[in-house]
Amino acid sequence: MASSIAQLAQDLRARKTSAVELAQAALARARARADLNAFITLDEAGALATAQRAEGRFANGSLAGIPFAHKDIFCTHGVRTTCASRMLENFVPPYDAGVVEHLRDVYAVSIGKTNMDEFAMGSSSENSHFGAVKNPWDVTRVPGGSSGGSAAAVAAGIVPFATGTDSGGSVRQPAAFCGITGLKPTYGRVSRFGMIAYASSLDCAGVLARSAQDCMYVLSAMAGHDPRDATSVARALDNYNAELSTTLQGIKIGIAREYFGAGVEPGVAAAVRAALAQYEKLGATLVDVSLPNAHLAIPAYYVIAPAEASSNLARYDGVRYGHRCADPQSLEDLYTRSRGEGFGAEVKRRILVGTYALSAGYYDAYYLRAQRARRVIANDFDEAFKQVDLIAGPTTPTVAFKLGEKTADPLAMYAADVNTVAVNLAGLPAISIPAGFSENLPVGLQLIAPAFAESRLLAAAHQFQSATDWHTREPRA
Ligand code: GLN
Which CATH superfamily does the domain covering 5-246+394-405+421-472 fall into? Predict the structure, then answer.
């Protein structure tokens, strides 16, 4: 079985292995599983250099010497950062993202950059300039998206954890599809500095790992105030480690009936209900709750996210950095051909939708209404959290779908996020944990908490994982 972060840290301390050895082994596994297409760039030289610096700094529970991978959306100084786009195919950032700095400060060893949907737009990691990522449980299926490379790399045992970003589900949904644990913190808890912008009011850095305990170690290192990100919150971190052992006695879990709607496969619902029964056994009380505006989440998200994307992606103009067309004939020609060649189909679709929603004639009809929907969705959560400590339901309505199954139907693809996007609209923290199987594929249980209650989420996930073994299941190599 793949080792936990705690186990690896212990082995390092006991000198059973070295950081260089761990990095080399992770790189070898990444190469051996090239069929998954989980990585865009492997950084052997950088990994070995960091590993050498990590030697002698090991401590229990620390990330020093632990190999991992960054989603290729985080700017890494001197290491190509593509966001899976032709636009940034040769972009080498001159600086590090805040998250990258934080993890390097504790001597965690990045072995490379993971594949994803272009500019984090997608739910299957098929929208990549570098080709689709495969699900380690069944290579004919998608790993979810947009952080699909990170999820596949963790699920296949290549690295114990990987960073991701979640604007509408991109950490939780691939975690669910790949049978691992995925944490999306509260908006503002983790720096967005140097994280390539998709939809700035929704974008949130997160972590994909095998267990809640491993997520806890990574969050503790990743999170914190960053003055370079104006939405980053100046609030002390909780002691996530100390609070992990909080039991479920007296915890009220709200079962959101809307999350078990018509599109939810019976096998998924059954696995999630069984997991919730386990929660009851562990001392939690299950309470029915309602989120009456849940049906507005997908339409509101798919107006707001493209609107923000259309604005954020205006910076790729072929002038300062990124793809530039050959022989531009005029400034207009430079803009249109550079963008036309650099962006893929889904990115273009979102730029068109977003520009339309923000245009003078349609702003009130679309953007403003979507913002109102966002408010009532957030209010639903506020109301529900007056009665319960956590809200639970299936992370995704289905198990991992087949490669190519939804690529011709954008709306079907968008529906994969029906249970995740509301959380981003409300800025809340949430976690997806392995809850069982349906059709031999992993099923994820999503737990949602009030803002900044990451420790409550992590503890509730950890208590479940201490009593069950779903999170230890691994796909056959
Ligand atoms: N699948 C959603 C989208 O395509 C969410 C993506 C994300 O969280 N980055 O926008």
Answer: Amidase signature (AS) domain (3.90.1300.10)
